[in-house]
Amino acid sequence: MPAARTAPFGHGGRTVTTWLTDAWYVAGWDAEVDTQPLSRTICGVPMMFYRKLDRSVVAMRDACPHRLLPLSIGLREGDGIRCKYHGLLLGPDGVAQEMPIRTDPVNRRICAETFVTHERHRMVWVWIGDKAKADPALIPNLWPCSKPGWTFDGDYYHVECDYRLMIDNLMDLTHETHVHAGSIGQPEIMEAPIETRVEGEDVVVSRWMPGIEAPPFWRDALKLPGLVDRWQICRFVLPAAVMIDVGVAPVGAGATLEDHDQGARGIVVDFMTPETETSHHYFWGMARKFDVDDPGFTARFKRGQGGVFAEDKVILEAQQAAIRANPDLKLSAYRIDEGGVRARQMIARAIKARKAEVSAH
User: Fold this and answer.
1) How far does the chain reach from its first CA to its final CA, in angstroms?
2) Are 331 and 194 in the same domain?
3) Average pLDDT of the residues in 216-244
4) Angle, CA 236 vertex, CA 329 and CA 163 arms, to 5°
5) Does 160 score more than 80 pLDDT?
6) Residues 114 and 192 in one domain
């Protein structure tokens, strides 16, 4: 189980307990991280990421240990980074290789903090917490992203809201009827019964909509006329992932909530990496097993999905602003919110367990 956040992952010495540590978070898409530094604040810590000559990824605190200038605006030299202020050269391990006055002996006690990284599912992951616990086996199992016979692509949005609000949004798809009326939303979503359950450390919300008209997004994917059976199965995975098994199949094709490889099936893959308590990095995409050999369709599909998620971004940023403007009010939870509520409870329990573990030692 991922652990609660501990120093140095705080703000001004204050421990933040809205996200987990001793866990892997997505730092960027594989294509985002290149030879020139990428600056990104992860769980309250400014970091920079770049690839060495062998293409492995370096993650380092984005602050020169001399005068704290961001290293991300520095100069790459070999596998190292030279601060653009006074010229201190740091190796990929964060240790000083050359002093600002080059005749001075190198003080190897001067170093910048580094972080463990790993690449999987076309994403660069960074371990937040105790480096000794950074086991790649603990990376969330986003299996559709790497499964043979499927294709996967996606993109990134910076969203000005608490990452848990996005989890709430993804675990309650009744909002599609109103927020996404022109693409994936339809009234039947509001009418279909939902089931919420906990499976180990996952939370699952499922909805089955038989014999309905397909919304525009899915009608285009299916390429067939007639009524369809539609499904939505949302799964929250610690520390901050949501996978949504979605699709439509022609009525009579034999699709069920348990077995639905007929028709057009995809799995929306979402990972929310906290930046601050009121902002996060949103990595979104879809893995699908239809039209897998059509790169043009993949690009168009991603563009359409990006438009859908841009609508969510507008809503959630407005919600965060309203929360800030109404400090005397609290969020309410109805039955449709059960998936998000249980996901938050899962996070809170993990934090509490870690606190107990630390106290015991």
Assistant:
1) 17
2) yes
3) 92
4) 45
5) yes
6) no
The 10s digit of each residue's pLDDT in 171-188 is 988 777 667 666 676 676
Residues 6+ apart with CB under 8 A from 2: 20, 21, 22, 23, 129, 138, 238, 239, 350, 354
Which residues does 289 contact at the CB level (< 8 Å), separation at least 6? 149, 150, 151, 261, 265, 266
Which residue in the block uniquely carries the two structure tokens 């580094």? 114
Task: Please tell me the predicted confidence (pLDDT) of residue 183.
Answer: 67
Instruction: Examine residue 360 and state whether it is found in any structural domain, yes or no.
Output: no
* pLDDT higher than 70, residue 214: yes
Calpha distance 54→121 (Å, rounded): 19
In three-state secondary structure terms, 158 is strand
Question: How far is the C-alpha of 13 from the C-alpha of 196, rounded, in Å?
Answer: 38
- pLDDT over threshold 50, residue 6: no
* DSSP H or E run through 125: strand 123-128
Domain enclosing residue 124, as ranges: 3-137
- Residue 140 has which token pair? 């969330």
* Three-class secondary structure assignment of 62-108: CCCCCCCCCHHHCEEECCEEECCCCCCEECCCCEEEECCCCCCCCCC
Please report the pLDDT score of residue 2 as a whole number.
Answer: 43
What pTM does this model have? 0.91
Q: Is the pLDDT of residue 190 over 60?
A: yes
Task: Please give the pLDDT value at position 277.
Answer: 95
pLDDT recorded at residue 337: 87
Kindly state the tokens that stand for 205.
């919300």
- Which are the contacts of 27, defined by CB distance < 8 A and separation ≥ 6? 33, 40, 42, 47, 49, 59, 117, 123, 124, 125, 126, 273
Pair (110, 174) in one structural domain: no
Q: Are residues 290 and 196 in the same domain?
A: yes
Rounded Cα distance, 70 and 61, in Å: 9
* Phi and psi at residue 309, to the nearest 5°: -70, -25
Distance of alpha carbon 288 from its chain centroid, rounded? Answer: 18
CATH number, domain with residue 34: 2.102.10.10
**pLDDT at res. 335:** 85
Same domain (yes/no): 146, 62: no
Gyration radius (Cα) of the chain, Å: 22
